[in-house]
Amino acid sequence: MSEETEVLTVEGLAKLLGRTEASIREGIRRGVPWLPKSFKMGNRHCWLKEDVHIFLREIRDGMLAGSKPGRKRKAAPSLGTCHL
């Protein structure tokens, strides 16, 4: 009988999200928005399973669709009437 834990490590989060452990670790390092907020227990990054489910529901429902990173773009220049 396996006891299910409420705390996920990188391995558990990778399985839940269908990603590799390497992509999770790289995401942590880069601070990507597709990862829920983690906390440290000792030297391990951890997530509460309940928080991950809430995070995924918010993504599904469009609540985390914040602005994209980067600078604002200017409108493309238009060709005016040419005076010769």
Question: How would you characterize this protein structure?
Answer:
With 84 residues, the chain is of the alpha+beta class. It has a domain at 7-60: Arc Repressor Mutant, subunit A (Orthogonal Bundle). The protein contains 3 helices and 3 strands. The protein has helices at residues 10-17, 21-30, 49-60; strands at 7-8, 39-41, 44-48. Strands 1-3-2 form a 3-stranded antiparallel sheet. A hairpin with a 2-residue loop joins β2 (39-41) and β3 (44-48). α1 (10-17) packs across α2 (21-30). The radius of gyration is 20 Å and the shape is elongated. The mean pLDDT is 86.
CATH topology annotation of the domain at 7-60: Arc Repressor Mutant, subunit A
Number of strands: 3
Query: Radius of gyration from the CA trace?
Result: 20 Å
Strand order of the largest sheet: 1-3-2
Which class of the domain at 7-60 in CATH terms?
Mainly Alpha
Q: Report the portion of residues in β strands.
A: 5-15%
Number of helices: 3
Question: How far is it from the N-terminal to the C-terminal residue, by CA?
Answer: 85 Å
What number is the mean pLDDT?
86
The secondary-structure class comes to alpha+beta
Taking pLDDT < 50 over at least 5 consecutive residues as the criterion, the unreliable ranges are none
